[in-house]
Amino acid sequence: MGRGRSRDELGSVTVELALGIPVLVVITAIAIWAASLGATYVRALDVAQTTARQVARGMLADPPPAGMVVDVQAEGDLVRATVSTNQAPPIPVLSGLDVTVRADAVAAMEGLSPAQEEP
Q: What is the pLDDT of residue 119?
């Protein structure tokens, strides 16, 4: 016997495809956004490390890239740099799900300590 489709099933593949493609697009966009969050974290960590090192050496820190906020605090012989930035999802359907990416770095103060300085 032949395997024909009944009249009720003729448009089902088209409907499934029409519903499935947008779902796949959203899932792909979320996956790309997740990868970009990882890349943003690596970039923020690099900025935090560079800033902490520069301040620990007594240098003026480079300005952060656009959209990144740097907070530097000296704690005894340590310098802590915290970098944060907000990242919005790539598709408007997920608006309001902004993620704050934050990275911290610590560096020891360089140079002579007060005990090592000559009178």
A: 47
How far apart are alpha carbons 52 and 62 in whole angstroms? Answer: 10
Separation of alpha carbons 56 and 58, rounded Å = 5
Distance of CA 115 to the CA centre of its chain: 41
Residue 81 burial (C-beta neighbours within 10 Å; 0-12, 13-18, 19+): buried
pLDDT digits (tens, 9 = 90+) for 31-69: 998 999 999 999 999 999 999 999 999 898 899 999 999
Structure tokens at 2: 């032949």
Number of H helices, E strands in the chain: 1, 3
Amino acid at 2: G
Contact criterion met (CB below 8 Å) for 29 and 21:
no
For a pLDDT cut of 70, what percent of the chain falls above it? 84
